[in-house]
Amino acid sequence: MNKILITGAAGQIGVELTQVLRDKYGAKNVVPTSYNKPAYGKFIQHETCLSLDVRDASALAQLVADAQCDTIFHLASLLSAVAEAKPLEAWDINVNGLLNILEVARTYHCAVFFPSSIGAFGPETPYFNTPQDAIQRPKSMYGITKVSGELLCDYYYHHYGVDTRGLRYPGLISSTALPGGGTTDYAVDIFYAAVKNRHYDCFLRADTQLDMMYMPDAIAAAIQLMETKAATLKHRNAFNVAAMSFTPAQLAAEIQRHLPDFTISYQIDPIRQAIADSWPRHLDDGAARAEWGWQAHYDLAATVADMLKHITLNEQKINVKVPIKSFS
Length: 328
Ligand code: SER
Hints:
Low-confidence stretches: 322-328
Structural class: alpha/beta
CATH superfamily of the largest domain: NAD(P)-binding Rossmann-like Domain
Shape: globular
Number of helices: 11
CATH class of the largest domain: Alpha Beta
CATH architecture of the largest domain: 3-Layer(aba) Sandwich
Helix content: 40-55%
Number of strands: 14
Strand content: 15-25%
Bound molecules: serine
Distance between the termini: 40 Å
């Protein structure tokens, strides 16, 4: 990786990944791009973030050619709940946008990182120890776009030799990026509500168990996979990665160990509950461990302690708006 283009740099993963890649590879070698103006200006300076719509193939090609990029972290995507509300737009951004990335990568010989998700599985998939190679019949539009993306990445590798690689992420928890319309976002919202109001009204049922990961592990996984020698990879795309698996009730109990007066109530959003109910509870990440040495460092206790520390500090420094619980 010498010159890195990031799409979706202002999004959930992009904000932190951009900073880590800049620290590691030098700011001038990282080109962050975003459709929306970076929303995290209060948290992170993205003064050099360029405007890019991944659906605009010629603008994308021009940028990659001008900057002489050799690697693309393609993060631009709609998350699950938004995709369910806007299925055609989700297909356009998540699938047609990826196709543009793969075409430009083929033309300019770039490696591509593509984040898939636990959402690429469906109710016919085994819920526990979900195998690396398992049946994939997702019921959400988000999941359909992610399976399509996995297959497109495989296709471009096998047919054109494009160095595509990717992970199936669990729900991601970030102390920097605010939630952006995902089903697992309750596990971020809850920290802001806990610090500010000592109460959270959760949109998933108390017993909804899902795979989760703290953002530093998610960022490390992406970079480690992209830095791995190609010869050691058998799967390449869509590696299952896992770190911890918990329910809203278990997360609330862990927060209460730090904030004993914190309380939680439940007001179920049927759309997000249905999505969550169709997703695996815990992925088997044996292939990632065996092929490129993947290992998570943050469990539930470490994540909660670190999140509360950072969110409390942020609250003291700036007047952060509490994320909106639901959307229409
Ligand atoms: N966190 C994502 C979502 O909830 C799933 O990958 O949409």
